[in-house]
Protein backbone atom coordinates (compact mmCIF):
# COMPACT_ATOMS: atom_id res chain seq x y z
CA UNK A 1 0.00 0.00 0.00
CA UNK A 2 1.34 3.41 -0.90
CA UNK A 3 1.61 6.15 1.68
CA UNK A 4 -0.71 9.15 1.42
CA UNK A 5 1.86 11.48 2.97
CA UNK A 6 2.30 14.85 1.29
CA UNK A 7 5.29 15.03 -1.03
CA UNK A 8 6.62 18.27 0.45
CA UNK A 9 6.37 17.52 4.17
CA UNK A 10 7.61 20.93 5.27
CA UNK A 11 9.46 23.74 3.62
CA UNK A 12 11.28 24.72 6.85
CA UNK A 13 12.60 21.48 8.28
CA UNK A 14 10.96 18.36 6.85
CA UNK A 15 12.03 16.14 9.74
CA UNK A 16 11.29 18.41 12.72
CA UNK A 17 9.39 16.53 15.42
CA UNK A 18 5.93 17.81 16.27
CA UNK A 19 3.11 16.69 18.55
CA UNK A 20 0.20 15.10 16.67
CA UNK A 21 -3.35 14.98 18.02
CA UNK A 22 -6.46 13.20 16.83
CA UNK A 23 -9.44 15.49 17.35
CA UNK A 24 -12.93 13.97 17.29
CA UNK A 25 -15.83 16.37 17.22
CA UNK A 26 -19.27 17.24 15.91
CA UNK A 27 -20.04 19.83 13.25
CA UNK A 28 -23.49 21.47 13.27
CA UNK A 29 -24.51 22.99 9.94
CA UNK A 30 -27.27 23.65 7.44
CA UNK A 31 -27.17 23.08 3.71
CA UNK A 32 -28.45 25.19 0.86
CA UNK A 33 -30.87 22.34 0.06
CA UNK A 34 -32.58 22.79 3.45
CA UNK A 35 -31.39 25.95 5.25
CA UNK A 36 -34.03 25.59 7.98
CA UNK A 37 -33.08 22.05 9.13
CA UNK A 38 -29.83 21.87 11.15
CA UNK A 39 -27.71 18.77 10.65
CA UNK A 40 -24.90 17.36 12.78
CA UNK A 41 -22.07 15.13 11.62
CA UNK A 42 -19.40 13.47 13.79
CA UNK A 43 -15.95 13.84 12.21
CA UNK A 44 -12.26 13.49 13.07
CA UNK A 45 -9.29 15.67 12.25
CA UNK A 46 -5.56 15.69 12.88
CA UNK A 47 -3.81 18.75 14.27
CA UNK A 48 -0.18 19.20 15.12
CA UNK A 49 1.82 21.53 17.30
CA UNK A 50 5.46 22.14 18.07
CA UNK A 51 4.50 22.51 21.76
CA UNK A 52 3.86 19.65 24.16
CA UNK A 53 0.72 21.34 25.46
CA UNK A 54 -2.46 22.76 23.92
CA UNK A 55 -2.80 26.55 24.00
CA UNK A 56 -6.23 28.07 23.34
CA UNK A 57 -5.19 28.84 19.75
CA UNK A 58 -5.08 25.08 19.15
CA UNK A 59 -8.81 24.86 19.89
CA UNK A 60 -9.50 27.28 17.06
CA UNK A 61 -7.26 25.27 14.71
CA UNK A 62 -9.03 22.06 15.76
CA UNK A 63 -12.47 23.57 15.09
CA UNK A 64 -11.34 24.76 11.66
CA UNK A 65 -9.87 21.33 10.87
CA UNK A 66 -13.12 19.61 11.92
CA UNK A 67 -15.23 21.94 9.76
CA UNK A 68 -12.90 21.26 6.82
CA UNK A 69 -13.12 17.51 7.45
CA UNK A 70 -16.92 17.78 7.37
CA UNK A 71 -16.83 19.76 4.11
CA UNK A 72 -14.45 17.19 2.60
CA UNK A 73 -16.75 14.35 3.69
CA UNK A 74 -19.82 15.99 2.15
CA UNK A 75 -18.04 16.91 -1.07
CA UNK A 76 -17.89 20.11 -3.10
CA UNK A 77 -21.44 19.69 -4.43
CA UNK A 78 -22.93 20.39 -0.95
CA UNK A 79 -23.02 24.04 0.08
CA UNK A 80 -23.00 24.21 3.86
CA UNK A 81 -23.17 26.91 6.51
CA UNK A 82 -21.41 25.93 9.74
CA UNK A 83 -23.22 27.02 12.90
CA UNK A 84 -21.12 25.34 15.58
CA UNK A 85 -18.19 22.97 15.97
CA UNK A 86 -17.82 21.00 19.19
CA UNK A 87 -14.47 19.45 19.99
CA UNK A 88 -15.19 16.35 22.06
CA UNK A 89 -11.61 15.29 22.83
CA UNK A 90 -7.92 15.68 22.05
CA UNK A 91 -6.07 12.39 21.76
CA UNK A 92 -2.29 12.76 21.83
CA UNK A 93 -0.81 10.50 19.17
CA UNK A 94 2.82 11.25 19.90
CA UNK A 95 5.88 13.40 19.29
CA UNK A 96 7.26 12.42 15.90
CA UNK A 97 8.58 13.56 12.56
CA UNK A 98 6.23 13.80 9.57
CA UNK A 99 7.86 10.67 8.13
CA UNK A 100 7.16 8.75 11.32
CA UNK A 101 3.57 10.00 11.46
CA UNK A 102 2.88 9.08 7.83
CA UNK A 103 4.71 5.77 8.29
CA UNK A 104 7.25 6.44 5.57
CA UNK A 105 9.78 3.72 6.25
CA UNK A 106 11.48 3.07 2.94
CA UNK A 107 12.98 5.12 0.19
CA UNK A 108 10.75 7.68 -1.55
CA UNK A 109 8.37 5.92 -3.92
CA UNK A 110 8.62 2.53 -2.17
CA UNK A 111 5.49 0.90 -0.87
CA UNK A 112 5.24 0.54 2.92
CA UNK A 113 3.80 -2.60 4.48
CA UNK A 114 1.02 -2.01 6.96
CA UNK A 115 1.22 -3.57 10.40
CA UNK A 116 -1.89 -5.72 10.85
CA UNK A 117 -0.94 -7.14 14.23
CA UNK A 118 -3.47 -6.65 17.04
CA UNK A 119 -3.02 -3.73 19.40
CA UNK A 120 -1.59 -4.51 22.81
CA UNK A 121 -2.21 -2.82 26.13
CA UNK A 122 0.68 -2.49 28.56
Radius of gyration: 17 Å
Query: What characterizes the major β-sheet?
Result: 4 strands, antiparallel
> What is the count of DSSP helices, taking H or I runs of 4+ residues?
2
**Could you tell me the strand content as a percent range?**
35-45%
Structural features:
122 residues, alpha+beta, 4 strands, 36% strand, disordered N terminus, disordered C terminus
Notes on the protein architecture:
The chain contains two helices and four strands, in the order ββαββα. Mean pLDDT is 82; it is low at 1-5 and 115-122. Strands 1, 2, 3 and 4 form a four-stranded antiparallel sheet that branches. It has a domain at 18-101. It has 122 residues and is an alpha+beta fold. The chain is elongated and about 45 Å long. β1 and β2 form a beta hairpin.
Secondary-structure topology with pairs:
Elements: E1 18-31, E2 34-49, H1 56-74, E3 80-87, E4 91-96, H2 98-101
Short summary of the structure?
The chain is α+β, with helices and mostly antiparallel strands and 122 residues long.
Amino acid sequence: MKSNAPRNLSSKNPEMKEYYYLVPGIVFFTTSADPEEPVSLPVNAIVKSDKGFLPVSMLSKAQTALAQSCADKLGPQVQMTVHDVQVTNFVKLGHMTPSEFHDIGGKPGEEVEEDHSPATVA
